[in-house]
Structure formats: C-alpha cells, structure tokens
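User: Please predict the structure of the protein below. I'd like the answer in structure-token form so I can feed it into my own downstream comparison script.

Assistant: Understood. Taking the following sequence of 522 residues as input:
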Amino acid sequence: MMSLLGKKKQRIGELFVEQGLINTNQLKDALKRQAQVGGHLGSILVELGFVDIDTMLSFLSKQVGIPSVNLSKIDILPEVLKIMPLEKIKAMKILPITVNENSITLAMVNPKDMIAIRDIEFSLGKKVNPVVVLASQMEMVIKTLSEHPGDGISGSNLSKIGIKTDLRKAPSLINLLKYLSSSPASDLMLTAGVPPSIKFGNDVKRAAMNALTPDDCIRYAKEILNEKNWEIFQEKGDFDIAKTYPEIGRFRINLYKQRNSISITMRYIKDILPSMEELNLPEWIKEYVLAPQGLILVSGPAGHGKTTTLNTIVDIINSTRRCNIITFEEPIEYLHKHKKSNVNQREIGTDTQSFIEGMKHVYRQDPDVIVIGDLRDAESFNLTLQAADTGHLVIASVHASNSLTTIERIVNMFPPHQQVFIRTRLADNLIFIFSQKLIPLKSGEGRILAYESIINSTGIKNLIREGKTHQIRSQKTSIGTEDFTPLEISLAKLYKSGLITLEDGLLYAENKQFFNDLTKTS
C-alpha cells in the first residue's frame, strides 16, 4: 500500500470521487491536509471522517487484489508477535497476525512489497499470506508495541484509542447544545467529514475545530436515542424526536443516514413562545383564530417557522377560550401549559400510531380545536375537512411556496373526479391561509417573517369554488387588501423599515416588478 498510495496519491482521490464516496471539495481538503502533515491519502480521508475505515479497506483490497484486515477488530497473541523483531516491524511496516507450521499471515501497509515478503519467507522458512491494512492503524500498533513490549495487541483497545484522536477530538454533545441554545443560530448540524456547523439565517457556518468522523456521529446518535429508537432508526434510516436537556432546553432533532454514515440536525426550541410582535405576525390573526369552526392553514417552505406560528395560534386560543384542544405533532416541539383551555398534545409514533389512527378516534375525545402538525396526503386532508365540516376549528400546516399554491397543492392531492367537490368543501370551511417566509435580516443576525395571506371572503370563496385561484393575485385590487395581502407588500414594508436588503426582497418576491414598484422612492 505504501507504493500504491505514495505513487498514486491523486489517483486514489479521483477514484473515490468517481465512485461518489467523497466530493471534490473533500478531496481538496484531504490533499491540503496531506501537504501540511504528510502521510497516506487513504489514512487522511479516514482521519478527516470523509470515509470510514472498513470502506477504505474494502477499496484498497479491490485495488491491490489482496484481502484486508481492520486491526481494531482482531486480537494478536504475544507469542505471534515475538516471532518478528520490533525493529523489523517498524522498518517494513509489517505485522504478524497468525502463524502455523507452513505459513504466516502478514499485515502490510504495502502488500505489493515483494522484497519484504521474500525477506520474511527466507528468514522464517514460511509462506507469507499478505493482507492490506491502513497505515494509520499500523502506526498505532507500532506505538503500542513500543510502549508495551511483550504484550499482545487488543483490537478493542485500538478502537478506543482511535486514529490520531489528539488531532480531532470531537466536542461533547452537551457543550454543542449549550452553545446552540445561547447563540442566535437556528440549527446545529453534525455531519461526518466537516466540523460541527451552525445555521445563521440561510448561511451555514462551520466551527473552528476539526472534522467529525462517522464514529463521532454514531456516538452522538446513540447519546440522543434510547435502545428502542436506535433500532427503529437503523431500520428506517430517518428519525424525528424532540428532547429536553435539563438546564439547557428543548431541541427538535432529526437523524438520517447518508453515504453509510449518520447526520444529525438539531433545532433549539425556546421554552417561552415569542410574542406576535417578536414574530412579526399581524394583529388581525387574533380575531380570526377565535372562530368556533372552520379551517386555518399555515403554509410555507420547510424551515421557515410554520411550527412556531402554529403554536403561537394555539397559545392565543389557550389564553382566551375555555375549550379542549387536541394536537397531532411529529414530534412535539413546544410544550403548552394548560391555561384557560385543556391542551392535549399527541405525538405521532408515541401517543398514537399515526395521524390517520388518531383522527379516527378524536371525536370521542370531545375536541373543540384540532391542530395538525403537517398535512401530507389526500387521506389526511380529507379527515381534516371532515373535522371542519362537523363543527370543529382545525388548524394545520402545509408545505407550499405561497398562499395560492397551498390551495392548488391540496386540490391536486385528489384524483380529478373528486377535485370539484374538494374545492367546494375547502371554500365552505376555509377561514384564512397564512403563508410565510423567513427573510435574512440586513444586520446579518437572524431572519424576520414576511407573509402573504388570503382571508376567505365571498369573492375569494367564489374563485376557489370555480377553480380560478390564479385570478386572486391578478384581481387583488378589485378583491381588496383585506382579502388578499401579497407577499410583496410585506417585503416592501420590511425593506422600507431598513430590516432587509433590496436584493433579498427581490429574491423572495413572487412578482418582482410589483415589488420594485412598491419600493420605488418618489
């Protein structure tokens, strides 16, 4: 492997890129690291966490046509090690693993080194069966043998030592969470191959520390999940959970698999819901959310604060009405205290098997208000409309880019022969749609909410029934701003208040010309 990696440093990296195991930026980082500290590129890719040990060994084995061995998974007896002087082990980067009367299995950094193989065969009178090992693991073994001559090699001990842990000791999960909870960042991202990263607004910034390895991410994941949830995650490849850490706070956590490793995204959830003013929510919402019956939809792209708005609406009702509120959430993020209302929060997968199962039994629980974390399919929305039809206030979130596409996305969940009926039911039950986006602040610290809204007046109701929702935007003047507030008006106010830049306003505007007209100075 020595000549293989020494002679073809660039080639091994190119092969990994071609096979999709690393990207070109990771290769550049590894080559930069190699230029700084030397060593084999394969070991550096493992050290940086871009590739795990077994994947690297499998790759090298295929390249040289010789079996590989992960030294952290085997034990070598002292009597086997004694057949070869330590000086020869150090000089040739070889290691006896097993031996019998006729042959010796020899771990080698460069299994194509025929001079070393002939030397051992001549001196021991045995046939050499070479296996390829990682250079960094060989260095660990040599260091261990130098410090404890006469002892055997324990693979589990090598695994605990790790590869060059002094160069990349990963921070504790608790320390990372403490930092996130005290910073203006929204998310913490843990991914093998890069340092822990945090998200400010729409920008990802990496911490000034070494890259995480796949093993680091496994350790974090096992610290987050109990044994049962770990098994579920291993089977499904994705897992959502909300977890409270005493004296730090509550976090929404998503774990997922990618490229044979684990990535984790964690969002800090404040104990106290921000006020409507802090969230930049309009005051008129307070009036409409107290309706006894109907449907309220909060829409927007993923990661743009829909859950916070949804929970703020729940808090308004909880603080004002004396009613029974039942929520279906995946996972539960904000924990509501019982104020004037009873708030029963049900977590999908924990308190009820699914949203569908939960809704089948919800009427026996005498709800006045039903809150749904995310509408995803026709069956879910049909049950939602049914609840609104039967005299309940239903509040739900939907992934959609704006208020008009929210309507069309819902209708298009259903087959064509049902869509006219669905439009009628939607028009009859809808109270308002609130579509939001979070725009980066001009100061660079955080984001602020811009919104578009449709309030279901008689004019809006008719356009929804007739399948003419596209006309809502074009007829905004005749319909009136009380019925439809386009996103551009909200963006223009934020720009004129000095809170966002003109460039970001244009970037998020649906109608860029309209936004330009609103922001022109006379």
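That's the full token string. Residues 229 and 235 are 10 Å apart (CA to CA).
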